[in-house]
Design brief:
Largest sheet: 4 strands, mixed
Mean pLDDT: 93
Helix content: 40-55%
Low-confidence stretches: none
Oligomer: single chain
CATH class of the largest domain: Mainly Alpha
Bound molecules: flavin-adenine dinucleotide
Strand content: 15-25%
Order of helices and strands: HHHHHEEEEEEEEHHEEHHHH
Distance between the termini: 36 Å
């Protein structure tokens, strides 16, 4: 897609490109040092280390077009790894509902990438139906702390997290959306046990987290007791928008074309094969349409709006597109994609193809399953009755 860039935007694009090329990683140097320095330098540019944070909290205050340019350019360049949990999931909750004391206590470390957070929402019987959560938080008689008991599941990177933001139940007498409380809990303490879950692709990224009589000071509660359903819903919308990965998919599509073009079919390449070509073309059309939705979403975010139902469209289409890209990569790699383990066989790009494909099955489950997104779209976008 082409969007017309005015001269200010062109200037901005040039300075982003310059920054990314001046500060790319030099092979062999200390990665961690480079990573932290990269964020410091990005900060000195005027909040580029926290592009989505509001200006009040140190963000750059970009226009939608500037956000779009940043997404496009960073998807192409090598930028340091970053995790969404503190930066784009918890931070907006703290900014909107946390006390000033909590904002001052937690936001600087999140911004400096000093502290890793994980998300304690899902439970064995609370996923799509999140309000069914049972992890109990009981306020002590003197009102100084909560005692938390329960189990969280699918907690991504809990094994390296310093803190968990947790939805807990403080009251089960009313509607299940009432009586939910948002607590911030340090992970490294007695009573917290993290058990790994190995997923289909063979990776350890998710865990089961058991909380037994964990004491949480009352000042670690965000917002009011029992009112966290509202905060949680806002956070989920931010999570969904972040999962779409449109710019990365655009880059991945370009890569896929090159890869398929390098695979011989008859006198030509796989890209000349009409059925494969059709699949790539269909994917490109959907990607373009989703990109427009993302632009609309950026425009309303820039005008100060919280993500709305368009975040469900982005999550649904964005993750399906990522899965289709993985599938077409596996198809291009053919039998070589099935090779598992350290030694590459056949096309270089095929190595790890199958484990990537298997891992991508989860994209349409986490952050809210596709069926649930379709429900949200039917209700809030199409106006259909339940
Ligand atoms: C890799 C991975 C990482 C994750 N990371 C985290 C994390 O860090 N923190 C966290 O809190 N959670 C995390 N999750 C959990 C994730 O959010 C849940 O898996 C998801 O919400 C679905 O819940 P569930 O697994 O309980 O499935 P269920 O809710 O039991 O759903 C099972 C099936 O039923 C369908 N279904 C359910 N309700 C409806 C409905 N109303 N209409 C139509 N169909 C429906 C679903 O679409 C799904 O196909 C992660 C999950 C995965 C797979």
């Amino acid at each position: 897609m082409d969007i017309d860039l005015n001269s200010d935007d062109q200037h901005f694009q040039k300075s982003v490109r310059q920054f990314l090329s001046d500060n790319s990683y030099v092979a062999g140097s200390d990665y961690n040092e480079w990573r932290l320095n990269w964020f410091r330098l990005a900060r000195d540019q005027g909040g580029w280390d926290v592009p989505k944070w509001p200006e009040k909290f140190g963000g750059p205050g970009w226009t939608p077009t500037q956000h779009y340019i940043w997404e496009q350019e960073t998807a192409r360049a090598q930028t340091p790894w970053d995790l969404p949990f503190g930066l784009s999931m918890l931070a907006p909750v703290l900014m909107n509902y946390g006390s000033e004391e909590q904002q001052q206590r937690f936001l600087p470390d999140i911004r400096d990438r000093k502290v890793n957070w994980c998300q304690g929402y899902s439970e064995p019987n609370a996923g799509s139906d999140l309000a069914n959560l049972k992890t109990k938080a009981e306020l002590s008689a003197d009102g100084s702390h909560y005692v938390v008991n329960g189990t969280k599941i699918w907690t991504t990177l809990a094994h390296i997290a310093d803190w968990i933001f947790c939805l807990t139940r403080t009251d089960d007498s009313g509607k299940k959306q009432d009586g939910i409380t948002f607590l911030l809990i340090p992970m490294k303490q007695a009573g917290i046990e993290v058990k790994p879950i190995i997923t289909l692709g063979g990776a350890h990224s998710v865990n089961m987290v058991h909380l037994t009589d964990v004491k949480v000071p009352v000042e670690n509660r965000v917002g009011e007791e029992g009112k966290a359903w509202t905060y949680a819903k806002g956070l989920l919308a931010h999570e969904r928008t972040g999962l779409a990965g449109i710019s990365r998919s655009l880059v991945a599509l370009e890569k896929l074309r090159k890869q398929a073009g390098s695979v011989t079919r008859g006198n030509g390449s796989l890209l000349d094969d009409p059925s494969y070509r059709l699949k790539v073309a269909e994917l490109e059309v959907e990607l373009m349409a989703t990109e427009f939705t993302e632009l609309r979403s950026l425009a309303s975010a820039a005008a100060g709006a919280e993500p709305g139902p368009e975040s469900s469209i982005l999550k649904l289409k964005g993750t399906e597109i990522q899965q289709r890209l993985q599938k077409l990569t596996v198809e291009a790699g053919g039998i070589y994609s099935a090779a598992w383990g350290a030694t590459p066989v056949g096309h270089t790009f095929a190595h790890g193809g199958m484990s990537g494909y298997l891992a991508s099955r989860a994209y349409t489950i986490y952050g809210g399953a596709s069926e649930v997104q379709r429900d949200v779209i039917a209700k809030n976008v199409l106006g259909l009755k339940k």
